[in-house]
Amino acid sequence: MSEYTPVDITPPELRPSALAHHVPDWAEAAPTPADVHDWEQRQASALVPFELDDRGWPLHPQGRTGRTGRNLGRWGENQAADPIVVAGTGDQRRVLLITRDDIHVEAITGVRAGSLRG
Questions:
Q1: Counted domains in the chain
Q2: Of the candidates 14, 57, 85, 104, which lies 20 to 30 Å from 72 by C-alpha distance?
Q3: pLDDT tens digits, residue range 14-45?
């Protein structure tokens, strides 16, 4: 049986050394899940239920993904909304797509739910 060795996807700006100097506006300052103190509240309000492992790190609800680390602003669930932008009518109708920086494929535009203002 081979040992599970997921790839760490944490970008440089979210590694502990960078967080000590500058925290992006969209990211919490906790360098590891052990530094998060409101897991019970986060789990209770999650749209998709998730558990924590023996170290206190959040587990993907669908199981192993081959990835570890942090590539989003918060540890645990990061809610998002994806607007669909359509222009034109009939045969001239078009849908706006973006190319994602992380996986370099086309996708529907996205907005983090925390950045939505209503």
A1: 2
A2: 85
A3: 888 888 777 777 788 888 898 999 999 999 99
User: Who's near 27: CB < 8 A, 6+ residues apart?
Assistant: 13, 14, 19, 73, 74
Query: Both 114 and 65 in a single domain?
Result: no
- Predicted local confidence at residue 73, as pLDDT: 84
At 56, list the tokens.
């206190």
Domain co-membership, 22 together with 70:
yes
pTM of structure: 0.62
Torsion of CA 20, 25, 30, 32, to 10 degrees: -90
The CA-atom distances, in angstroms, between 56 and each of 29, 103, 104 are 17, 28, 31
Full domain range(s) for residue 34: 1-77
